[in-house]
Amino acid sequence: MTDRLLAILSRAYIALAFAFIFAPIVTLVIFAFNENRFPSLPWSGFSLDWFRAVLGDSAVRDAARRSVIVALTVATLATVLGATAAYCVTRWQFAGKNLYLGIIVAPPCIPLLILGLALLIFLRQIQLAGSLRSVIISHTVIAAPFAFGIVRLRLAELDPHLEQAAWNLGANEWAAIRSVVLPQAWPALIAAFLLAMTVSWDEFVIAWFVSGLQITLPVYIWTSFQAEISTAVNAIGTIVFAVSITFVLLAEFVLFRHAEARERAQW
What we know:
single chain; 11 helices; MetI-like fold; mainly alpha
């Protein structure tokens, strides 16, 4: 009886925790389809007018275009940097390796306000603040550790003797990486790319510090909220959330699908 009660309480606690986390998101999405101009009760009726208005707004399209450019560029840079760092860590032993690891994973652990201020000061010193390049550099700093973590987990599962065998057969290091490592690590690379894109697409605080007039979509949402709270802003938020969750689900699908394929191959 006690075990059953504990199981019920555990499930109730988990349900309440998920409800607490997702209630604001669900509310955002529901009111995005509200016919009323302002997100308030009672519900006025279902409407897609706010999505049509948002998609027809040139300011929203410009902000979305900047976010797409930044997210794709950041995902590419972060995946290359993260994968390179992961390969170095998993295949080589060198002095200061633990310090190197600490530096790599440090950015997501730093409060975003402090990191954003530090990046703003640095970018001003090199005269890059207030441009789209500054957003790309800043987002790469925080997205690369996520790519590093995903690729490192996959590389740690690979047998390093396969690369050594390729070397013994006459392949140089680059050829071994291209023919042995990359074919086995591609699901992690794709997942790292998608996750880095999600991090950049969603990030607001650092973009708000360094973007200047080249604002991304999350910064546009914030500035719109400063003016007024309207259903149109909810519609933008819903679109941003839908894109983000799509990236995350695709990354999960790639990783789990590959894991299942490996398990079937072992059987």
